[in-house]
Amino acid sequence: MINKYQSIRGMHDYLPKEIKHWNYVESIIKKILSSYGYHEIRLPIIEYTELFYRTIGNDTDVIEKEMYSFKDRSKHNVTLRPEGTVGCARANINNGLLNDQFQKLWYFGPMFRYERPQKGRYRQFYQMGLEVFGFKGPYIDIELILLISRCWKKLGIDKYLRLEINSIGSTKSREVYKKDLITFLENNQLLLDIDSKRRLYINPLRILDTKNKSIQLLLKKGPLLINYIDKNSMIYFKNICNFMLEMGIEYTINNNLIRGLDYYNDIVFEWKTNKLGTQDTICAGGRYDKLIETLGGPKTPAIGCAIGMERLILLIKEMSSSMMSCYIDIYLVVFNECNKLNIIKIGEILHNSFPMFKIIINYYNGSLKRQFQLANKYHSKVVLLLGPDEQEKNTIIIKDLRNKIQKEILQFNLVKELSYLLSQKNCDYL
Ligand code: ATP
Ligand code: MG
């Protein structure tokens, strides 16, 4: 029977077998964030619509056609957040977190955009966002880039991602550039596609972001924003590039890199992959030194970025086996009906001794072969086996699945033996 109730188009259920990957990835990123002194902030998923109108830019795709906006029962215009930076900025102002203070924050949660759903592009999607308030660049910018690079390395996907950076200068210099860009594109009207023609007078900078190859070629002959940015922006950009070189961070300058939201200035960056097709940006961000003032807060320099979690997980699943490498630490095999309680007792001792480990008892009464198949399927590190013979002798069999070693030891020595075996690697998913 086909169930007539379906989830809304572009919005998905994340089932337990999927969540296991998410937990693993989130925990790695959260640990790294914490090690760099970032703190979590949790924000509402609905804000007053005006907040987004004021900041994101009226001519952007998000504002023009992607927002889920409606009137609440008090007739207030509200919107499901399409991104996290603006809400985070508002929360910092409202809660007085910015008066001569520095904030390094992260948030995780769903965002909503009415887009055309496809692989890597959904109407409800999750972002892990980082926002830093109160620090002038460029050192904090470099630290942010190093932190994100560390995440890619730890997740085993650094070789599939490339960092592109650009400087978009100040609003003032962008206005001058816009005029010249419009003139250039007007002279080449015939070569533009419908989307670019539409954007020409609304938001010409967005044309730089086009996926249309022939327009990309055309733009190569047009004016370059980088030639319009003022002296201070140029020095800033050069400093960033030099520091990146010094820190061994590989990057390419993409002079057509522009962000889809209007509040950015100077440095913008994206990590892209060529493994996922068109939806190729995994993480994007930049400096937004004027946003807080625009919202009525104190003058506060700021920088941030957001990781698109679905795309990140798609990439990890396709490219890295490390994700599954330590899902279960200790897997206890039930040998026959009579020793189930003994296995539970041993399990409890192990939970007491190794509170951070994932210890699973399989109560399924299948054959030994089937139980080992399951232990392997869930990428267990160690399997413990207690049969009638071992029970008789107060021993237990330990099978180290990673090193393919098996031995029988006294139950008395089990904790000591496991501490040794499992000490090399911590479990990242916890
Ligand atoms: P794109 O050009 O792919 O539409 P964007 O510039 O609109 O991205 P941002 O607002 O910078 O995206 O969001 C940061 C990240 O969030 C993106 O790089 C991407 O990984 C992810 N993201 C954005 N929109 C979606 C979506 N609709 N579905 C899934 N992930 C998304
Ligand atoms: Mg978009």
- Low-pLDDT segments: 426-430
CATH-scheme architecture of the largest domain: 2-Layer Sandwich
Which small-molecule ligands are present, each listed once?
adenosine-5'-triphosphate, magnesium ion
Q: Strands across the major sheet, in which order?
A: 1-5-6-11-10-9-7-8
CATH class of the largest domain: Alpha Beta
Determine the N-to-C terminus distance. Answer: 39 Å
Estimate the strand proportion: 15-25%
Annotated CATH homologous superfamily of the largest domain = Bira Bifunctional Protein, Domain 2
Main beta sheet: strand number and arrangement? 8 strands, mixed
Helical region count?
15
CATH level 3 topology of the largest domain: BirA Bifunctional Protein, domain 2
* Average pLDDT number: 90
Class from helix and strand fractions? alpha+beta
* Gross geometry: elongated
Provide the domain count. Answer: 2
Rg over alpha carbons: 26 Å
Layout of SSEs?
Elements: H1 16-35, E1 39-40, E2 46-48, H2 49-56, H3 61-66, E3 68-71, E4 77-80, H4 85-94, E5 103-112, E6 124-133, H5 139-154, E7 162-167, H6 171-186, H7 194-202, H8 213-220, H9 231-246, E8 252-253, E9 265-272, E10 281-287, H10 291-294, E11 302-308, H11 309-319, E12 328-334, H12 340-353, E13 359-362, H13 368-377, E14 380-386, H14 388-393, E15 395-400, E16 405-410, H15 414-422
Parallel strand pairs: 1-5, 7-8, 12-13, 12-14
Antiparallel strand pairs: 2-4, 3-4, 5-6, 6-11, 7-9, 9-10, 10-11, 14-15, 15-16
The site of magnesium ion has 2 residues, from loops.
